[in-house]
Specification:
By secondary structure, the chain is α/β, with parallel strands linked by helices. The protein is built from twelve helices and nine strands. A hairpin with a 3-residue loop joins strand 2 and strand 3. Bound molecules: ligand C2E and magnesium ion (3 copies). The site of one magnesium ion has 4 residues, from loops. One of its GO terms (molecular function) is cyclic-guanylate-specific phosphodiesterase activity.
Amino acid sequence: AAKRRGKNNFQYYTEEMHEAISRRMILEKHLRTALQEEQLKMYYQPKVDPFSGQITGMEALIRWHDSELGEVSPAEFIPIAEETGLIIPLGAWVLRTVCRQNMKWQQEGVAFLRVAVNLSPRQFHQQQLVEQIIDILHETGLESKYLELEITEGALMDKTDETMNVLRQMKEIGIFISIDDFGTGYSSLEYLKQFPIDCLKIDKTFIDEINKQSMQSNIAQVIITLGNSLNLKVVAEGVETAEQLDFLKNHRCDEVQGYYFYHPLPIQDFEQLMRSKRGNGCQATLLQ
Ligand code: C2E
Ligand code: MG
Ligand code: MG
Ligand code: MG
């Protein structure tokens, strides 16, 4: 009986594996088409000053609605794009689309905000990334101080000589650089000190830890202290509750982002929000 069950289990797993593989292949095929036919969209999630509630920036997040597959999460398709190399054209599309949109918002007087674009590891380590960014800024007319790049710890701590070189070039151009999902990877404190970076984004898992019972000390607090001592700005992602916000304010976190304030918004909703803010006499802060 055991033998038979073993055999059945084996069959069960192969079927499951087969399903996973075919979904992956279908996703890859559809993603290629979506990119060619411009079916991908960017949403924008405001970043907020926790003390004044003013919108201080935004993060661009990709969205994909496929007619057959429905809504596919970037958490699922970005890794596939990474593995297949599709991230290179996709990443270029994201950068160009976001810079163009931000420039348009400035020209129309909708918003003067820095926009953050996520770079996945392969995208960050691609040859000619810096040249590509310079071209896109030139082509769209966006000033470099209105562009921020969010790079994960893992991507930065890999090939550190090359990373240092790329970061220095980006810094020279005047781009703002953030470490995304900070605390989940393995940062060398030595490199953290040496790299010309501007900001640490505390990963949501540490924000989730904040609640009334664990107000004493937690990793979020440690990261804020670390950021302050390295002269870096600290941003909290995934803020969902008033308790989390209070905690972050008490510990002087510089910026917050999360559903408690705003979800990622499609272009029209973002524009409506910015216009309503202005109507309230609460204008979005201009960058210094
Ligand atoms: P991330 O850069 O760490 O982005 C934060 C994620 O948390 C986003 O998920 C955002 O929608 C979500 N989020 C924001 N506030 C809250 C909150 O209060 N509660 C909860 N539960 N979630 C919140 P999303 O949009 O699904 O993106 C997932 C990941 O996919 C991103 O993580 C990023 O690594 C990647 N990604 C998204 N867009 C792009 C892109 O354009 N290019 C690249 N290379 N990666 C992207
Ligand atoms: Mg991010
Ligand atoms: Mg993040
Ligand atoms: Mg995250």
